[in-house]
UniProtKB/TrEMBL annotation:
One Pfam match: DUF34_NIF3
Family as reported in the entry's similarity comment: Belongs to the GTP cyclohydrolase I type 2/NIF3 family.
Assembly information from the UniProt record: Homohexamer.
Annotated residues for binding of a divalent metal cation: 65, 103, 327, 331
Single GO cellular component term: cytoplasm
Annotated protein name in UniProt: GTP cyclohydrolase 1 type 2 homolog
Segments traversing the membrane: none
UniProt GO molecular function: metal ion binding
Record key words, sorted: Metal-binding
PANTHER family according to UniProt: GTP CYCLOHYDROLASE 1 TYPE 2 HOMOLOG (PTHR13799:SF14), NGG1 INTERACTING FACTOR 3 (PTHR13799)
Length: 364
């Protein structure tokens, strides 16, 4: 396999279309047409990670965090980012990062955290907007089944637990082709009326090029009449964070103690305990202070995240408990998630979980 084929598999699972605007995802270093000898899967790409890739004959590093986050103006080895990139280039090692594209996936980072905690009845904490589109097209009635089938095969018409969803209205369309036209029905230069069906389907935004290609290939007309709109609807299967419930409620101290053990945290920083049972739990891996209000509004008893600053803890306002388990600790199982997915898809080369501990924080 070449690198691009591996990338396509990853992005079928976690499309980079849904990465946050501030992020830097995708192939960061290397040639996408290079053949893959082995792939090292890691949370972070550091010099030590590149060394491990070299020692294990891997020429592709699949990383959760991007080593290049903001623009690089020089490559002189003056800091850890430049040294890592230089070492990768010198040893012909490609680096790919997925980051917030995987954060936003329903079965991504936060689902892993929820699974480790044991949450049931899970749903997205902050459903993503601008990720659902609607296609409306007009087709001769006798060709409607063919076009509709083609759209479904391309991925249109999926709504939650349902597929093959569409709305269809019959009517009469009119057109008149000019001297350069080549109409499938009717005559050029003459107004023609045709029994048509209006087909409406929704689809995930990242599938747009595939959906339109299917439409143009299946539609019989020389000029295809269609409309595309981005919907305001939120996507209940895509977005940041997750909220769920414990099978049975527990007290705050027991829950915090469990968090510390499960995530092997050096410590768990938390806001004031409220002496209330814990049943409903919100989670968000990595830096999650921006979602405190969302967790409160969703009725969470506790919000598990990382990188909370001093003043962030005030935002609990004695409505819920905030628990900071550490950035690395909250995302440490992500590489296993990627490994588990890819190992079911790839058997042509070695997939290796990185042994290098990239956590920059240590505890006494």
């Amino acid at each position: 396999m070449i690198i691009q084929e591996v990338i396509s598999l990853i992005e079928d699972f976690a499309p980079t279309k849904y990465a946050e605007d501030f992020d830097n995802v995708g192939l960061l270093v290397g040639d996408s047409n290079s053949e893959v000898k082995g792939a090292l899967i890691t949370l972070d790409t550091l010099e030590a990670t590149v060394d491990e890739a070299i020692s294990k004959n891997c020429n592709l590093i699949i990383s959760f965090h991007p080593i290049i986050f903001s623009g690089l103006k020089k490559l002189t080895g003056r800091n850890y980012v430049e040294r890592t990139v230089l070492k990768a280039i010198k040893n012909d090692i490609a680096i790919y990062a997925i980051h917030t594209a995987l954060d936003n996936q329903h079965k991504g980072v936060n689902d892993m955290i929820a699974e480790k905690i044991g949450l049931i009845n899970r749903k997205i904490l902050i459903p993503r907007k601008d990720s659902i589109k609607k296609l409306t097209t007009f087709v001769p009635a006798k060709e409607a089944d063919k076009v509709r089938k083609s759209l479904f095969e391309a991925g249109a018409g999926n709504i939650g637990n349902y597929d093959h969803c569409s709305f269809n209205i019959t009517g009469k369309g009119s057109f008149k082709g000019n001297e350069n036209s080549n109409p499938v029905v009717g005559e050029k230069g003459q107004i023609h009326f045709e029994e048509e069906m209006q087909i409406g389907v929704t689809y995930a935004a990242h599938l747009e090029s595939k959906i339109l290609e299917a439409l143009f290939n299946a539609h019989p007309y020389e000029e295809v009449a269609y409309e595309v709109h981005t919907l305001e609807n939120t996507n209940q299967h895509l977005g940041m964070g997750m909220i769920g419930e414990l099978e049975s409620e527990t007290d705050e101290k027991s829950f915090l103690s469990q968090l510390k053990d499960t995530f092997r945290s050096g410590c768990v920083r938390h806001s004031k305990l409220l002496n209330k049972p814990i049943k409903k739990v919100a989670v968000l891996g990595g830096s999650g202070a921006f979602a405190i209000e969302n967790a409160r509004a969703a009725g969470a008893n506790i919000f598990v995240t990382a990188d909370l600053k001093y003043h962030d803890f005030y935002k609990a306002e004695e409505k819920l408990v905030l628990a900071d388990i550490g950035h690395y600790e909250s995302e440490q199982f992500t590489k296993k998630l990627l490994y588990s997915f890819l190992s079911k898809k790839i058997s042509s080369f070695a997939l290796i979980l990185a042994d290098t501990n990239t956590n920059p924080i240590h505890y006494l």
